[in-house]
From TrEMBL:
Name of the protein: Lipoprotein
Keyword Signal: yes
Signal peptide: 1-23
Keywords, comma-separated and alphabetical: Signal
Lineage: Bacteria, Pseudomonadati, Pseudomonadota, Gammaproteobacteria, Lysobacterales
């Protein structure tokens, strides 16, 4: 009985060591994940067409880097509250990388011009380390059992705490704490979002517009992400026209070829009225139906905002 009591008393002590308010920063390494917005739109779309597949949640990951090996990871589930983590990327002894997540100690931690580590608590028990230490760049994962010991003290945000990360060609494979309930292989395949900007012109007569009708309503400065981006089109007075643009990268089962798809969507019922395809790396994509015209161009580092 004394032994059992001793073990119970030791558990909170172990958790305290895993939830330290500040830390001595190890040698910083290059950022583990490139800055930008990531989205698993295609993974969710693909699962919706497979009755046997367990539909993954739609997630968006926003990564921002700071000096000293720090990053903020903002994970936002569709329709849910976002969770923001401060991640410290550091070199391991064999030249690999490890990532230590921190949770905020204050309601609104400062992020500009840089986060203050004193406003965050390190979650050492959930540190992501190389599963194969000899291989730099291998999958980083937390010890699930160790991480579970501090989970109750983190609150609802624990559901979206990263516990495994694998760099992929165009994004990352991200496993969050809640994925454990969906199975041992459950993870979000989030891909880097590329932005397209441009314009659309909608004729006031809609699809029934005659060729000589010049009542064009311009939508300028449009901006859509290629991973399920959507933008409503308005009349010149700012009221909704009833149509939207959709932009998404998809891979159809029939041909297995990835495409960039630009769609005209009826807002009333979500029907796709027309679409155009282009190569996923296309610099430009557009469509002309007579009554509606669209032109989009891929943003570069110089033009991105």
């Amino acid at each position: 009985m004394k032994r059992v009591l001793s073990m119970i008393l030791l558990l909170p002590l172990a958790a305290c060591h895993s939830l330290r308010p500040t830390a001595v920063a190890p040698a910083p390494a290059a950022a583990g994940v490139p800055d930008g917005l990531y989205d698993n739109h295609e993974q969710v779309w693909r699962a919706a067409g497979d009755a046997a597949a367990l539909a993954p949640p739609r997630l968006r990951l926003q990564v921002r880097s700071y000096k000293g090996g720090w990053q903020t990871w903002r994970i936002e589930p569709e329709g849910g509250a976002p969770a923001t983590w401060l991640m410290q990327v550091a070199a391991t002894a064999d030249g690999g990388q490890q990532m230590t997540p921190y949770r905020a100690r204050v309601a609104a931690p400062k992020l500009d011009p840089a986060p203050d580590p004193n406003e965050w608590t390190a979650l050492d028990a959930c540190r992501l380390s190389p599963e194969r230490p000899s291989q730099s760049g291998a999958r980083l994962a937390a010890d699930a059992a160790a991480c579970a010991t501090i989970a109750p003290g983190i609150g609802a945000a624990i559901a979206f705490l990263p516990i495994a990360v694998t760099r992929a060609d165009e994004g990352i494979q991200l496993r969050v704490y809640a994925d454990q309930a969906r199975g041992p292989d459950a993870q979000a395949q989030v891909r880097r979002v590329h932005w397209y900007g441009g314009w659309a012109a909608v004729n006031g007569a809609g699809p029934q517009a005659s060729a000589d009708n010049r009542d064009w309503h311009m939508n300028r400065q449009l901006r859509l992400g290629n991973e399920g981006g959507r933008s409503a089109l308005n009349w010149r007075d700012g009221t909704p026209s009833g149509w939207s643009l959709g932009l998404e990268r998809l891979t159809f089962r029939e041909g297995g070829t990835p495409v960039l798809k630009l769609s005209i969507i009826d807002d009333a019922d979500g029907r796709v009225l027309a679409y155009a395809w282009a190569d996923p790396r296309a610099e430009r994509i557009g469509i002309n139906l007579g009554w509606i015209q669209v032109g989009l161009e891929r943003e570069t580092k110089e033009t991105s905002r």
